[in-house]
Design a protein that fits this description.
- By secondary structure, this protein is mostly beta strands.
- It has one domain: OMPT-like (Lipocalin, Beta Barrel).
- It has no helices and 14 strands.
- The protein has a ten-stranded antiparallel beta barrel.
- It comes from Persicirhabdus sediminis.
Length: 248
């Protein structure tokens, strides 16, 4: 079984001693993990020179989520691994404008976010029940923002932005028992290349059903601080994540 975002490791337990049973170094392992991310959004989106407050907690995100999906794929051979990670959310809700004005009857913000990453891993620590991977790669971020102002005159403003950022991070995996495992991921990126800064963090508790299937429950947070001309995207997405992994 691979060490993907949700998958556990292969371990055998005998006489209270846990021993890692690694596959041959020349054998490729693969895993795919579709998952649900009930992410709330909080921060500021600047559109047309006007800053709009975004505050949608994950507890009421079901009322605002129009469509969303996410998936993770990993291939590993020995100490090296390669992964693709994708997230897509489309939300719609009332816009929090600083000065709505007396002639404004309503305002609505539609925000579509795509985040895709291509990553390369290297496992530099692998002892008994604990392993640590360092990784680096490229993230692509796409934001489609649409603001509708309804009043004496109906006004629609729309802006789309897409950019690439470098990212680096660490992933720590620890096997609690034959079935249960923990995983933590920390990542930073941007560094002024496109975003001023971005970060990602995740803590996961997983359960191995068998050699092919795992379940995972996690909490994930993503922060992006990007600005270009009069467009601002300074937003944090965070919330629980539930997924399943198939490994072969």
């Amino acid at each position: 079984m691979t060490s993907s975002v949700l998958a556990g490791e292969n371990y055998s337990v005998s006489d209270d001693i846990t021993i890692a049973t690694a596959p041959p170094a020349d054998q490729w392992e693969f895993s795919i993990s579709p998952y649900l991310l009930m992410a709330g959004l909080e921060g500021t989106v600047g559109l047309g020179g006007q800053n709009i407050g975004v505050d949608a907690a994950f507890s009421d995100i079901a009322d605002k989520l129009e469509i969303g999906g996410a998936a993770y794929f990993e291939a590993r051979k020995g100490k090296w691994g390669f992964a693709l990670d994708g997230l897509w959310l489309k939300l719609k809700g009332n816009a929090d404008l600083p000065t709505p004005g007396p002639v404004l009857e309503s305002s609505e913000l539609t925000l579509e976010t795509v985040r895709a990453k291509a990553l390369a891993y290297y496992r530099f620590y692998d002892k008994q029940t604990t392993s640590i991977d360092a990784y680096g790669g490229i993230s692509y971020n796409y934001v489609d923002t649409q603001l509708e102002l309804n009043g004496l005159a109906n006004i629609e403003q729309r802006n789309t932005e897409g950019w690439f950022d470098p990212v680096i991070g660490l992933r720590i995996s620890h096997q609690l028992s034959e079935k249960w495992f923990l995983r933590a991921v920390g990542e930073v990126g941007g560094f002024g290349v496109s975003s001023d800064f971005n970060w990602e963090a995740m803590a996961l508790l997983g359960y191995s059903i068998n050699d092919c299937w795992d379940l995972g429950l996690a909490y994930r947070g993503i922060g992006i601080d990007y600005s270009e001309d009069d467009f601002v995207y300074d937003v944090t997405m965070s919330g629980p994540m539930l997924g399943v992994t198939y490994s072969w």
